[in-house]
Amino acid sequence: MPELPEVETTRRGILPHLLGRRIRALNVRESRLRWPIPAEVPSVVQGQWVRSVERRAKYILMGLDQGTLIGHLGMSGSMRILTGNLPVPRKHDHFDLLMEEGVCLRYHDPRRFGALLWTDGPADEHPLLAHLGPEPLTSAFDGDGLYALARQRKTPVKSLIMDNQVVVGVGNIYANEALYAAGIHPLRPARRISKARYASLVDEIKAVLTRSIETGGTTLRDYVNGEGTPGYFALRLNVYGKSGESCPRCREPIRTVRSGQRGTFFCPRCQR
DNA sequence: ACTGGATCCTGACTGC
DNA sequence: TGCAGTCAGGATCCAG
Question: Deepest of A73, A134, A180, A236, by most Cβ within 10 A of its Cβ?
């Protein structure tokens, strides 16, 4: 389920349960994720204290006394905190990170596109993290920088903002929504967009992600304590998944095309 | 250097 | 009911 707001919500949800606690065991039931969970990880992490729980892009980074556990939720992954008697694992509950005091972080991922890795060195030097673009909610991501990057690019602007080397954390839903909010056609070649319009696009990306993280907070409690997973954030979607429905702004029917194997939704009248 | 396409995997849904 | 086809929140890899 995860786009960046859900990953951030997950991080905030698991943080208080993991921070300052010691890992009793890592119990792996299915190691075949996006990359196999390396065989040595359980013995390496056992007995270590969790010193930090951070996020970079859509990776969740658990800093240990030695090294960092790197988690990723892929397309269908979720984490929840269990306490007390552990329920029998459901299908696709691939690992449990068992902490002191009966706290358990259980990972569920039907499609197995997620990951759990460990690195000894600085996490940001890990090959998966080393070449990532700026975080979208920091000042390192701005209109001028995006405009400069786009100069040589013929690729559709939607592909550009979903490129993790350009900016991280903009998934398909938010790419569609931010482009709608900025009035930019998703298939417009990246180099054919003015600096002013990129400034607006950056503002809208930040706004939609921020709003989504805020509303995600309301489902947090259920997410980490309750049974099952939440639905989507209580985010008002204008175009994503709204094929054929009328544009909230001009009533024109929302259209959908496929671009880069992803569903692309837009208003042909408002977005140019 | 860029770009589009294939790919990993399971499950939900649609249409016949 | 069953079966085939399509699509889904990600992101890497590879050919051209």
Answer: A180
